[in-house]
């Protein structure tokens, strides 16, 4: 099994997020606010079971899943869609595929040193990236 993602991650960069939200048809007021706030992640990993909590002053979101098992994901508060989501390992990377009314949507997480990288895609070509640093490691 790949390394641990377990810990609290503070956001340092957020590139092309507004274009990504625009492609998802998120209204302009929400887009403007969302691009101003930093999103931190709390990742609890026990083997192939994950609970990822994303926090910001604007909203919080929790995603719980087991690697390789499809589940229904409710994106209320993001773009208000539901999709069937599957997260898998690709080497040391977590790769997510979200199937629903929006084609080609998903994300990849990977760790380099103490940095967590997140790249999300939409329609296979609108891409945004986010970097977080490991602020705290849980025992």
What is the arithmetic mean of pLDDT? 88
| Weakly predicted, low-confidence segments | none
Number of domain modules: 1
Alpha-carbon Rg, integer = 14 Å
Structural class: mainly beta
Main attributes of the structure:
139 residues, Lipocalin, 2 helices, 12% helix, 56% strand, lipid binding, ILBP
Description:
- The chain has helices at 17-23, 28-36, and strands at residues 7-15, 40-46, 49-55, 60-66, 71-74, 82-90, 93-100, 105-112, 115-122, 126-136.
- The chain is mainly beta and 139 residues long.
- The mean pLDDT is 88.
- The protein has a single domain (7-136), classed as Beta Barrel (Lipocalin), CATH 2.40.128.
- The chain has a 10-stranded antiparallel beta sheet with strand order 4-3-2-1-10-9-8-7-6-5.
- Helix 1 (17-23) packs antiparallel against helix 2.
- The radius of gyration is 14 Å and the shape is globular.
- It is 12% helix and 56% strand.
List the helices and strands and how they pair.
Layout: E1 7-15, H1 17-23, H2 28-36, E2 40-46, E3 49-55, E4 60-66, E5 71-74, E6 82-90, E7 93-100, E8 105-112, E9 115-122, E10 126-136
Antiparallel strand pairs: 1-2, 1-10, 2-3, 3-4, 5-6, 6-7, 7-8, 8-9, 9-10
Helix pairs in contact: 1-2
């Amino acid at each position: 099994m790949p390394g641990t993602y377990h810990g609290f991650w503070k956001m340092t960069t957020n590139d092309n997020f507004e274009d990504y939200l625009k492609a998802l048809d998120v209204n302009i007021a929400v887009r403007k606010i969302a691009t101003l706030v930093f999103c931190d992640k709390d990742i609890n990993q026990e083997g192939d079971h994950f609970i990822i909590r994303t926090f910001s002053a604007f909203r919080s979101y929790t995603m719980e899943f087991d690697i390789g098992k499809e589940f229904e994901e409710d994106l209320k508060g993001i773009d208000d869609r539901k999709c069937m989501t599957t997260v898998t390992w690709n080497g040391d990377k977590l790769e997510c595929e979200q199937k629903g009314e929006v084609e080609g949507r998903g994300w990849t997480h990977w760790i380099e040193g103490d940095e967590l990288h997140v790249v999300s895609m939409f329609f296979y070509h609108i891409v945004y990236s986010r970097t977080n640093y490991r602020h705290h490691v849980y025992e």
